[in-house]
Amino acid sequence: MYTPSFLYIHKQRSMHDNYYVFDTIMGAKYPFWYMVILFIFQMGALVKDNWVLTVAFLPMFIIFAMYEGVEVNIAKMQYRDYTHLFQWWWGRFKPIEDPDYLLLSRTSDTRNGGIRYDVHLITKGSRDLLLFRTKNLEDHENVVKVLAQRTGWKAYRNTIDGLEGFE
Q: 72 and which of 20, 79, 109, 151 could share a cystine (Cβ 3.0–4.6 Å)?
């Protein structure tokens, strides 16, 4: 089945999709405080009964509903940075440069609190790719184990002392 590479309706997938396709939403395209300022201007337009300004601000609210993410297809060795709005995803697929290894990292999640675990595909080129993000350490390690077995890539854990091998 043919799906165009630009602006197609995205099919929902399972969490890992057999460990070959990874889809990670990075977050909102614009900061939340932009929306707050826009809301204040919108209320001012409504108070003054200016319907032209009210209608002009409505598309801006839609723009602030956009999210950014990265989709990585290991089976086809391609990735894309996409923008997501409602049911549409758009962005162009690009080839993945030569993979080097998988990197497991742990960071604090300031937005939601707690710890966030990331899996990155480190390439020999200029673009490293985020494959998977979770708050569960067990899911994090299982994904890396299965992916390393299926692809043959080495996996390393990012620590204070540098890279440490992952079994």
A: 79
